[in-house]
Write a structure and sequence with these properties.
Elements: H1 2-10, E1 14-19, E2 24-26, E3 33-36, E4 39-43
Antiparallel strand pairs: 1-4, 2-3
Length: 45
């Protein structure tokens, strides 16, 4: 829920977002997800 709010406010302020490396994921029985997701971004003017 908090990440959704963060992204809703952050995305309009970015001109571009792209991957900047290989993502690493965590495989688990209870919770799985990204361990590392390197990105490159440019702020909107």
């Amino acid at each position: 829920m908090e990440l959704r709010s963060l992204y809703r406010h952050l995305i309009p302020r970015l001109a571009s977002v792209e991957l900047d490396g290989e993502p690493a994921t965590v495989k688990a029985v209870f919770v799985s997800g990204h361990k590392r997701l390197p990105i490159r971004y440019e702020l909107a003017a």
